[in-house]
Amino acid sequence: MNSAKWFLILSIAAILAWGCAHSSEEDSIAPLAPASGRVDPGLGPGAQALSSGPGYKSSPSWSPEGDRIAFTVDGYVVDKPTGSEGLRRWTTRDFFAEDTEWESNDALMILGAAPSAGAQEISSSLYRAQLGEDSLELENVENDVSAIGTGGDRLYFVLGSGAHESWLAMTRGGGKIDRRYSKPIEGRVAYLSLAPDGEQAVLAVRPPGDGEVSMLRAFDLRKGQGREITRLEGASEILGTPQWTEQGIYFVAGKQSTTLDSDGAETLYNIYRVPEEGGPPELAPGVGEDFVAASIRVSPDGRRLAVVGRLNPKSPTNLYVLDPLAKVLTAVTTNEDMEIKTGPDDLAWSPGGKSVAVIARGTPSTEPEVRAEPADRLLRDFYNLYEIPVGSPEKTPR
Q: Does 43 map to a domain?
């Protein structure tokens, strides 16, 4: 064998040996801090990543001080500081969480289902998780809970997973139920939220015998009495939690369908508004007839709505802010490179109302790609949380 061949063989061996050593070193490298500003998320120059790596993420919830954010990853609950790493797990990996709300800076209220051997159907329950000494044990507050909502230092929840009657209850923390309202709600409550003053709740209800969410009801939390606000006509469903603003109640709804329509188009949802005293719903003023809504959330002061949707069926999904009083819809992102998740519980306002958390990922490529980075350092390929500044509300007279 001549010297040229020996040199080629030795060169290849050296390259392979360096590659193996380099891979070993990468395993010990700490993940890139996503909030450091070194990654352009494609959602605008002010956007910051709040999570990284793989896992199906959902239901973001800011802590009362705004310095931490909780969310679900593949069903279990975690939280982390908004400005750095340090993921903290609250439930076991086989837990399935639907929603989570902060009770205090060191306790979470979680709606979900714990694993149960041999159960054919598991109904959701309300649990309380508290920081402890490496403990992931949950305190069961109540079984058969269908919806939760917070107002100040109180958490309200709906009892009853059946189709005929539901009951409202309230806890001020510590895992203790402080009040059970005696008057039942006819039907099954799918979603619950509170008015800005915290004295009334709005409920999206499935009446007995109907297959879709078709009614909004208000519940006076002082008097313990409910009333119907509006009833949807036809096979329509309410998507996500209705939002009570200073200018009325807003909700997302559309024709219920499990398949594409005759033209092969998807079900399109609109934003509707109804006065708090009740009446027929109208398309939300200022949004536009062609707007396709996915999810909405009212700001902490009740004056603005964060909206995830599209200006028309062919437009990209973006984040918008609607001013219900001025009837003005403002685009916060003008992104075409990121796919914003459109689940009804996949956005949340920060406590100060200056930013919104969304879940997004890079637009999937149709071509195979090879990346040098470890999986937990990739952002664009996985759904992750992003904080997007929306500014302070204008000082418009109310």
A: yes
Q: Do the domain assignments include residue 359? A: yes
| Domain coverage including residue 40 | 31-90+331-398
User: Cα separation of 160 and 167, whole Å?
Assistant: 7
296 assigned to some structural domain = no
Is the same domain home to 205 and 335?
A: no
Residues 216, 240: one domain? Answer: yes
Are 119 and 236 within one domain?
yes
Question: Which among 384, 342, 381 has a CA at the least distance from the CA of 363?
Answer: 381
Residues 227 and 125 in one domain: yes
Looking at 274, 289, 308, the residue that finishes a domain is: 274
In terms of domains, do 137 and 252 share one? yes
Q: Rounded to whole angstroms, how far apart are CA atoms 206 and 203? A: 10
| CB crowding 145-179: b at 16 or more within 10 Å, else e | bbbbbbbeebbbbbbbeeeeebbbbbbeeebeeee
The residue from 259, 274, 289 where one domain ends is 274
pLDDT of the chain, 398 residues: tens digit per residue: 444 444 434 343 433 333 333 333 323 323 334 444 445 567 988 899 999 888 999 999 999 999 999 999 999 999 999 988 889 999 998 999 999 999 998 999 999 998 765 555 568 999 999 987 667 889 999 999 999 999 878 999 999 867 788 999 999 988 889 999 999 998 889 999 999 889 999 999 988 875 556 899 999 999 999 999 999 877 788 999 999 999 999 999 997 654 444 455 567 899 999 999 999 999 999 999 999 999 999 999 999 999 999 999 999 999 999 999 999 999 999 988 889 999 999 999 999 999 999 999 987 544 555 555 555 445 556 899 999 999 876 654 44
Rounded Cα gap, residues 194 and 201, in angstroms: 4
Number of domains the chain is built from? 2
Find the helix or strand (DSSP H, E) in which 202 lies.
Answer: strand 200-206
Tell me the CATH number at 193. 2.130.10.10
Cβ-contact 180, 171 below 8 angstroms: no
Residue 229 near residue 214 (C-beta atoms within 8 A): no
Nearest to 310 by CA among 339, 347, 282: 339
Instruction: Give the DSSP H or E segment for 220.
Output: strand 215-220
∠ CA 234-226-196, nearest 5°, is 95
